[in-house]
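Why do we care about 3D structure at all? Because function follows from shape, and shape follows, mostly, from sequence. That is the central idea of this module. The next example makes it concrete: a single protein chain, its amino acid sequence, and then its structure expressed as tokens.
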Amino acid sequence: MKDRAVIMARASSSKQADQGDTLEAQLEVCGNYALKMGWEVVKKFPLVESGRKMEREYFEEVLAYCENPKNNIKYIVFKNISRFTRQGSDVYREIKRRMRKVGVQLRDIYGTIGKDVNTLESFGLEYSWSRYSPTESSETHEADKAKDFARDSLTQMIGAEIGYVRKGYWNRRPPYGFQNKKIDTADDGERNILIPEKIEADFVKKMYALRCSRTLDDQEIVDKLNSFGYLSRERKQRDRRTRKVIGKNGKMQLTVKQFQKYLANPIYAGVICEKWTLYKPLRAKFPGLVTIDSFNDANLGKIRLVESGTDVHIQYGENLTANKSIKRRSKSNPLYPYRGIVMCPMCNQPVTGSASKGMSGKAYPAYHCSRGHKL
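And the structure:
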């Protein structure tokens, strides 16, 4: 009877999965390796997720599958240790110990990971201390090297992107109303800015104009825009495991909550204020869709952009829940004992609390800033 094995292939992003070291290529070489070793491949796990994060849902699924005694798995096969984990030697050793407890061995196609040796095998005995891996030093070296490579690559790439955002360029998915455009600059080479997306930009301008007119309440404005044909963007729907496109979603009508989020986003006034700017507003290298005066007028004093020469500042109003359609939540919820007491370090306003639900239906309470600042 052949030993049973599973294959794990991993890419850190959907872009990486489509280029270079593809999932399909990893599955093929690992399958050939298992065939050469005479093992039966009973399941393949193609995953697209970050190998650096401590909580990796689908990676845990691989380990849980191998731990199930009903599956009778002997080996986990992957291309190399960097495809298995980029969390360093400590995490790698812990995973290996976890699999060893259930009789599952790790194998890479390059032979970095060797067979375990029992130093008391000749006596017919075995203890936890008598079993070890002669190749452990090379394995942990590869695990640490993978972690160092990931850190250095991300520092170089993300660091450069942060620097350009702080100069006023844009390095993210374009917000509704905009589209990305590459331009040649004299000092910074080819950089990305936002330009209006005609149909969407017209809707954004109507949102501000209708709020500034003071003739309709928010629900009436939303109903009017929906009657004009507003629909949110169509987006690709991807498989949560492989990140392959399996359908499309979006094309939703406007809601009051989304309408208010649009109005409060300073990007529409040509001002960038986000995590990479440490939530300090700065003028973008491209114009907004409305003027700063229109932005301030539409936001009813709840959020205000103040110009000071070439600089711009954000002020937050005190009456942030003036809209009566927004229901106040109970301040006595025991899940959030510090809500209203702890202040956001960015805007110095009280944090709020809410709970998201996972696929199992379990709620995960957390604190957050209502203005989107990361805590």
